[in-house]
Amino acid sequence: MRNPFVLAPPLHLLSTLFSSLLALVLACSLTGCRPTPTTSPPADDGGRPVMDVATTLSTLPTGPLTIRQLNGTDMQVSPYPVGQPGGTLRVASIGQGPKTFNPWVAKDSTSSSMGGMLTAGLVTSHAVTGQVIPDLAKTVVISPNHTTYTVTLRQGLTWSDGHPLTAADVTFTWNTIIKRGLGNASLRDNTLVDGKFPAVRQLDSHTIRFTTAKPFAPFARQLGMPIAPKHIFGPIINQPNGDAAFNASWGVDAAMTHPEQLISCGQWVLKQYDAANQQVTFAPNPHFAMVDTDGQQLPYLHGYTVRFVNDMNAMALLFEQGALDIYPVPGQYVSHVRHLTEPDFTLYNLGPSDTKTFLFFNLNNRTNPSSGQPIVTPIHAAWFQNRHFRQAVDWAVNRDDMVANILKGVGQPAYIAESPASPFVDAELAKGHPQDIEHARALLKEGGFSWDSNNTLHDAKGNPVRFELLTNSGNDQRENLGVMIAEDLAQLGMQVDFRPVEFNVLIGRYDTGEWEASIMGLGGGSPLEPHDGANVWKSDAALHMFNQRKPGKNGKVDINDRYPWEAQLDTIFEQGAQTFALEDRKAIYQQYQAIVAKEHPFIYLITPLSLSAVHRRVHNAFPSPLGGTTHNSYSLWIHPTP
Q1: What is the pTM of this model?
Q2: Which of 281, 282, 246, 238 is nearest to 264 (CA)?
Q3: What is the rounded CA–CA span in Å between residue 81 and residue 279?
Q4: pLDDT reported for residue 61
Q5: Would you say 442 and 395 are in contact if contact means Cβ atoms under 8 Å apart?
């Protein structure tokens, strides 16, 4: 079958670029791309062996899915072995459950993942190569000047309620939800080039044309934005206060009372949200347009349940009791898990995690428009905005101890923004540095700080340095990091009041700006595309967490108060998005890594290895560094209970 991505010369972004990166990405995923990488736990301690996914990647298909037309519908054909229908996949997540099931509104990973179970995009990323491949689209034709993308949908697609999925849904999603920044404005932020949104026009019932203002290298991947049902959300948005109504739609109350109203174009529909027992249950979408090679409707599974637990100990206990089928194993639990005799499972090493864990300070220098008071107390703001202060903290934290004590050696220190698996990573900056308290003290002196006879740190005005450090409770890794950071910074005479809080409370504090310092992590995106970080690094972006700006009454974000280095980051991400040659892009994105390494808006801490335990009853599991363990959940099947 001809590749459904028609690439008009000289553009080779979706073929030559990704194929040239594949070997490097897989190597980095398994080695960490560091001078002294940690690739897996020791294999000679008598425990269960750890399987590197390289042993299974060679068996996976690497191209787009083939299409077979059945009863007028273009059905994708799963390339995985034929399985048996039935069974329920059981997984767990830490936290109190989602804040919403609306994927266009979600701003936290739990809500995004739950909403993501109900959606699909025009394209998706191949789990092995990272290459952009069609999903709801049948073909994508890219013009020679790199600015026009003509997308043709697969024939016969429908929503889970039986309503046809057409080009009208696509243009509504892009021109109304994304363009207006409804819900989570990050979706819009990642599509802008030169501050301009792409023109999106429906050509016929199955054809859409996207036109960018300038050549925009990341745009092919941006076509993976989730598509929304116009017949559901159109009437909601068109009513008075429609924007607010859309933001409130598909919330947790609707999920609990009328889950059938949350329709899907993905492989799952919401069956039940049991908030009391903190469990979400999904059922197969009867209109999911995919079959196996025998023509059997997919997915095989009859159910997919997600349980929410308070902490990592609770998740580990569920796995040991046989109540979970897939268990992401934290570093500190690896040795214990390897010596379990029950349940029977395979332990996979997927390489360095794409979640970046970091410490950061609130650099906001604005006032609350309601009260007229500074968002950050001026005394604290002066410390946090002092680059020497942030640099000193970077030198004072002991990442080697964090890896040894928290990850139990199953991971590596982190110093920069890019994933170790990224071919754009700056290898020299990634080497980092060891803890050096004396150098940290010298930086503080240079920044105007001093110590009294009790070794208490004071600023130039005599104020003792004391601040509150937050993270989400229940995440053992981040809670332990907070304790260690407080101890490390005590050596500099700082008093850190460490306080874990419930995740939704923490997100609320971020929204209002009422916080001082925090430990958080950001994941997602592809190591093949650094522009995925634009919704964090650009000054007006929705996840510019360290200096969050809110839209004004006109819906726009004012960036006239940017720090000089923020303006530099804005320019770099604009340049990178308009550059196609790999080496040129690499040079551009290494500039942003250097700025972040100097200014430390985020102080990166550790990168754990991703290890996943898969119960023996789960079949067709082919974990990959880019796709994770459930990237092919449509083909997973559960062995019948004996």
Answers
A1: 0.80
A2: 282
A3: 30
A4: 73
A5: no
